[in-house]
Amino acid sequence: MEETLTEQVVNVGVAEYYVTHNPHVLASYGLGSCVGVALYDERKKIGGLAHIMLPDSKAISRPGKPGRYADTAIRAMVEEMEKLGSRRRDIKAKIAGGACMFTIPGATNPKNVPGPAIGMQIGERNVEATKRALRELNIPLVAEDTGGNYGRTMRFNVSDGRVVISSIRHGTREL
After folding, report:
1. pTM, whole model, 2 decimals?
2. Is 34 one of the catalytic residues?
3. Selected catalytic residue, list 34, 74, 100, 134
4. What percent of the chain shows pLDDT beyond 90?
5. Is 138 exposed, middle or buried (CB count within 10 Å of its CB: 0-12, 13-18, 19+)?
6. What does CATH list as the number for 11-174?
């Protein structure tokens, strides 16, 4: 995805989200077990990107930043998009990430499957929690590139809704 001179690239770091109605490219680098969530309102050209680190804020006694969790980040982005003029029924989602990046030798799998623990399935749990939060808010998931055992970079062009996923091992693809 090439940026024009009018587009600014905004880096959305781990546990952060960013919502805008300007022609920015929002980028999250190094999505491993984390999930990138792009929300887009095609009618109003309003979009947001979250770099979600953990599935559920309710599991933590002092949750902190809303961008850290699937349940709070998506809700916060939708609220900001509505403040900018979006209607919830016009918002669609694309997600990427949720990989299994490491195993713990000798540990048992929490799902009672024989073999090494697969990083406590945090990537898989992040994807499940993200999809659940989208369903609860009636936001359709229109594309995804999730799972596997490799990291990704997600670039979301707010001016046209394109999401490009790139990885060292698997090249580049548009969602």
Report:
1. 0.87
2. yes
3. 34
4. 73
5. exposed
6. 3.30.1330.200
